[in-house]
Amino acid sequence: MAQPLRFGVMYDCRLDPSKDTTMGEVYAATLEQSALADQLGFDHVWFTEHHFCEDGYLPAFQPLAGAIAARTERIRISTDIALLPLYHPIRLAEEMAVLDQISNGRMELGIGMGYVPEEFRAFGVPLKNRVSMTEEGIQILRLAWGDGPFSFSGKRYQLDNIDVHPKPIQPGGPPLWIAAMSEAGAQRAARFGTNLLPQGKRSEVLDPWRVAVTADGGNPDDHRVGLIRTIYITDDRERDWPKLREAERYRMSIYTRFMAETPDRYGWGDPDSIPQSVIIGTADECVTQLRHFIDTFGITDIATSGLPPSIEPDYMATNLERLANEVIPRLSPPPGGPPGSRAS
Fold it and tell me: What CATH architecture does domain 6-342 belong to?
């Protein structure tokens, strides 16, 4: 069964390098805009995670997720992504269970195995162990969110008679997403039966995932496929694009550095990658571009950047309002409700 389309907002909570802004102001603006997104009917808020960035790039999503859960009523809260090897899975299971209780069952969790050597060194985690730590971590999360105590014996974790409390509100715990930047990641998502966060070449990520899910007797349409892709609505591109372009260049510059540091070879940024470039134009132009993108790649979830560095919060609030009123209903008209009623 094809999944209904969902739209959300992504936050990385980075300081504007050109302005005298505090982290407190960045977090306050994020809370305010998340509440607005909830009122406008957006479906989800996604957080990204990285560490040791001078601009404050969000290193810990849990406190912010709890604050947003307390200020909203319907919007779902997730990550794209949490770096699973840098957490002890029992601790993460407990934190997610508490957040699921606070939010009344609105949590999801997107995880990845990470790729930046500096982050692993700082946490004392060998980069070479990340695959096994990720796969064992997924198993432990699911066991911890199940009924009753469990034991686990793996290559990285040995657990005996663990019973996590409280349990999440959602049976079996928050839905899981796995980020894939290679065919191995795509196969992992298929094997564990999670939703998919694909990046890189379609031929190395999205297509192999669909083949693997089908080969295991599943249906790819039973899962969600999500991506961060910033959308700006403007009626004057010449006026607005220069400042928006600079904000996006700054936002993306850190990933260029990360990719230069990692020993991995991903297809990120290659010409045949799944597009993650900015969509900008009139409401009509954005609808046309999004419709083509969604249909071509089978995307079910899109998160637009909520507060890019150097863009005023009021400008971005107006952008969200226009998305909610002029674009989203034309892509997936709600059955007699606001945009957020498209999916639960």
Answer: Alpha-Beta Barrel (3.20)
